[in-house]
Amino acid sequence: MAVPILPTPVEAIDRALVIMQALAEAGPQGLSIAQITEALKLNKSTVYRALSTLKGRGFALQDGESGKYTLGANAIRLGDVFFAQSNLALVLHPVLEALSERTDELVHLGLPFGVEVMYVDKVEPARAIRVWSAIGQTVPTAWSALGRSLLAFGSVTSDQLSLYLSAGQDSTRQLIDLSDAQLWKKIQEARAQGYSTEIEENEPGIACLGVALMRGKNPIAAISITAQADRMTEARMQELYQTITEVVPPLLPPGVTLAANSAE
Q1: Quick one: CA dihedral 193, 199, 205, 207, positive or negative?
Q2: Residue 249 sits in which domain range?
């Protein structure tokens, strides 16, 4: 747990940061001042002053009985604020640009929106593709590659699918009927191969491939590649997924990963 103190010009800030890191590693059981002092090789009064400041700002919390410190709500909230839906489109736009340039296909970013998925960003290729989509538009989770990838790498169970299917049945865009068993099969396939598919289920002649983006064990967004269905062969889908695994991970912000297939 020992964290070196860097020779920075603002030592007080550096000390506070390493104390926060130590508290994060300790988890909910927390640490006493003595434990922090020993682990970080800091003076007790220095640790006390830093903790007092962190506590006052909500970045540390002290248990009234044990006296131990844990991370405060404001420290935990930092990551949530950064990865808020209002920020994700801006943070992930370079990923969409790079993927569209590499594949020469239409790329969408979607975020979970209840039982639907909302388009929050897209990058169009140089070549034209006739598909209607708009930022702010929502599509049923069960009938989209974006949504299926979110379901595949989330915590949904087979007995919860009726909620998603009923939402899709209220839409006039679906071209095929979909049962619980059929949707569950598609989810299982997506988990196994790392990507979901949707072929001519929303628009004639249009097919999509979707992948989920994870924060820890939770999917927070999904990226899809849309193309003419006659070009979206099995070989092309595998090629696109391989390209995604090469292009996307290096461009993701810290803390966000590409969902892995169950074989990895």
Answers
A1: negative
A2: 83-258
